[in-house]
Amino acid sequence: RGSPGSLNNYRSTEELPSQCDILIIGAGYSGGSLITHILSQPESRDKSIVVLEARQLCSGATGQNGVPGTGKSVLASGLIHHLSSEECPVLYFFFRHTIQSNHRPESAIRDWLAQVLPFSPHLQLALMNLTSEPINLDFVDDLSLVELWHLVRLALKNMPQVYCVVDALDEMDSDALEHFLQLIDQLGNMHPDRVKLIITSRPIATIEKIVRNLRLLDIRLDKKAINPDISTYLQHRLASSKLSPETKDAIKNIALEKADGLFLYAKLTMDKIAGLDHEPETEILQTLERMPVSLSFIYGHLLREHMGRTGLPKGLQMLVLQLVTHATRPLRLLEISDCIRVTQPQYGQDAGTIKSHVRTCCGPLLEVLPDETVRVVHHSLTEYLFGLTRSSADEDIPVFEPGPTHDLVANLCLSYLQAGHLDNITFVENSTFFRRTVLAKQEFPPFMNYAVNNWHTHAKKATRRQFPQEKTNEKVFSMLMTPESAWRLTALAEQTHTRSWHPGHPGLSGYPWVRDEKMSLETEVLLFSMRLGLTNFIENFLERCGEEAVNYSGTKMIQPPLHQAVEKRMLEIIHLLVKHGAELDQHDYQGDTPLYVALGGQSSRTKGASQPAIVESLLKAGADPWKTQERKKRRSHMIGISEESHTSYKPIRMAFSTCDDTIAKLFIPYVKTTETANEALGWVMEGSRNIKVMRLILDFGLVAINACADGPTFLFLACKHGDPKAVSILLEAGADPNTCHFRNSEPSGSGKEMAGPNVMHALADLTLMDPQTHIRHAAADEVVTECFKLVLDAGADGK
Q: Per UniProt, what is one Pfam family of this protein (predicted)?
């Protein structure tokens, strides 16, 4: 990079001039190079030049606006490539509404974390902690947007320099746009001298309204700035043509005028002309003159013209476009042609011919990349096909409505799987302890991977858009009720290593590796569908096979259906299972009822925003909160020791001892006597000591506050735990600090009783247990002092 040179730290005036001949924004290497170049020109030596650092105008954030086709994404890509040479992190993301993984803010932040990970030891350590005991996070995808954002801030906290490029912000889901922009604003303002942020977007009203209050530098890509580059591009494309110089100039002038600042229009025009090489020059010019001006008109024009010229069926053209625009990931040319060959025999059976048709059927509107993935030439074409930018003249071109189109793709995947491919899968038994059945090494047809891993995704997308699912549900029923089909799909999904099927993720999470021969086919289909979240299908399926499907007691490796639905927080499916006869107080292999699992059971998986609703639904349906867990002593098959490791609980005990007041409130109506009220308060005191839960129980009015028949008083427990807040609330409720619990100290039958310890004894030698190490240590002096003051002020006898 050399020495700083004569311009380093140079300033000719302390005051910013009110006018100048040349304004340069950016005082880095690019700005310095530009200054040196300008000053080297004789005609520029007398010019007034003002150079500003970008952060003098904004706080590290730069926004670039332009209409569709002006080259924003090309500019962003070039910028990423240029910045990557500076040996510092460059975080980037390209929002695309048509790609499943590219239109949510969570996806952008996950990509940034992956890109910055090699540069950030702090992030590496944080992720290591998240994936280790006791958290055991399976995927970063399991983290919320807030948690992901915390990791980004942690990673960038001590970075000396980092660039962040966000392309096509307008392609992001609108419901998440404002919150994401607020986070982006935080990022730009966090360390504006070290974190540089660049955003590209179309100037749509929603975004412009939000960014109006953000501090950023707004750069507009207008046609005056872009036309010279478009002219250069046209000249480059025409250079290899055999047309006469006069025709080339004419084409260049017409295309430049019609492009009106749109790179995309110029590209489509040149792609069109490239296909007319053998036409007379006059015909080429006439074709160019006939081409519409706006992008929406040109899309319709190109589709009709190309369809007529190739003679290919309109249905094939539309089907290819539907697959390309609605697939959850970019499809390869071979995948599309294989899907059409198998599911649409009317278009032919020869794989090579169909592949050629797919390649050519949409002309310049589709691009086949070097890896043979197929994509639309520009995301504005997708908007046109979705009907967002249509004119009334395009009624002959179908609008791709999301509901029907996703349903179509789901049915194509199902038809493909039912065409015999599932039956051709071969399995082998491996020699592991559980004798897990795995796929034999084999090659699968091109579309198999996509069909196996995405048929359910498209079906759910169609359902969310209220598209009727009767036909699709019938196909799913036919496929899954064929013996072995569910297991074959599971094994295939695992073989293809697709994340949506991976254990711990939406999909076949926790699907049994050890098959239960006693499980009915109906239950297997139900559990399979639950793991895929096919609520609409499950509702239809239970109407037909509910009794046979829900009555399954489970095994050590497989929980009953209702337990699984509760653990996965599937509220709608819980309602359906209960409606169709699932046993509410059934014990699983561990002895847990669904209600116990809902409260947390042996894991924290059920905890979250949906937990209160699940608990409430089970209680309303008739689940017994006093049902004791059936803990049984079982011996391990491998090491011969008991598997029981914790005390059996009633669900109501877990609710009061470990849950917050939202959950505890649901159980208050089941506390009906003084005895049960005392039990409930005792569980809280020995458990969470949650003040709000204590108040709930005390306010119910049944607690005998000074009861001590079965052990120490509640006040004694609060003092023993060194909890001033609990001490205070119990004293307010009328607890007597001088009450002792009585215990027999003489042999049985002597009739003599002695008073036990009181609160002063509890505080005299107070030790507390460390929740992490489980080692007891002396309580802090201030805690002991506060507790002593509370009980003495309440009249405790210190003698």
A: Ank_2
For residue range 395-418, what is the model confidence (pLDDT) as tens digits? 788 889 999 999 999 999 999 999
3-state secondary structure 480-519: HCCCCHHHHHHHHHHHCCCHHHCCCCCCCCCCCCCCCCCC
Position 751 scores a pLDDT of 44
Which of 331-340, 670-679, 682-691 has the weakest average pLDDT? 682-691
Backbone angles phi, psi at 536, to 5 degrees: -65, -45
**Residues 70-79, mean pLDDT to the nearest whole number:** 75
DSSP strand E in 292-451: where? 366-368, 374-376, 427-429, 437-439
Looking at mean pLDDT, say which of 211-215, 313-317, 508-512 comes out highest: 313-317
CB atoms within 10 A of CB 761: 14
**One-letter amino acid identity for 588?**
D
Round to whole Å and give the CA distance between 469 and 400. Answer: 18
In the chain, pLDDT over 90 holds for what percent of residues? Answer: 27
Number of Cα atoms under 13 Å in the Cβ half of residue 109:
25
pLDDT at 3 over 50: no
Q: Shortest CA distance to 612 belongs to which of 673, 560, 566?
A: 566
User: Rounded mean pLDDT of 150-163?
Assistant: 88
Query: Is beta strand 195-201 parallel, antiparallel or unpaired with respect to 162-167?
Result: parallel
Whether the ω angle into residue 280 lies within 30 degrees of 0, i.e. cis, is: no
The domain made up of 61-221 is a member of CATH 3.40.50.300: yes
d(CA 413, CA 448): 8
How far is the C-alpha of 132 from the C-alpha of 144, rounded, in Å? 18
| Residue 716 contacts residue 742 (beta carbons within 8 Å) | no
Does residue 251 carry a pLDDT above 70? yes
658-672 pLDDT, tens digit each: 888 899 999 999 999
Give the residue ranges of DSSP H helices in 344-401: 351-360, 379-385
Q: Residue 341, by phi and psi: left (phi above 0), alpha (psi -120 to 50) or beta?
A: alpha
Domain boundaries, given as residue ranges, for the chain: 1-52, 61-221, 407-558, 705-793
* Average pLDDT of span 234-242: 87
Q: Which residues contact 89 (CB under 8 A, 6 or more apart)?
A: 115, 116, 119, 159, 162, 163
Spatial distance between the Cα atoms of 46 and 50, rounded to a whole number of angstroms: 13
- Residue 540 is predicted with a pLDDT of 95
Beta strand pairing call for 427-429 and 374-376: unpaired
Angle between helices 485-495 and 448-464 (to 10 degrees): 110
Residues 6+ apart with CB under 8 A from 780: none
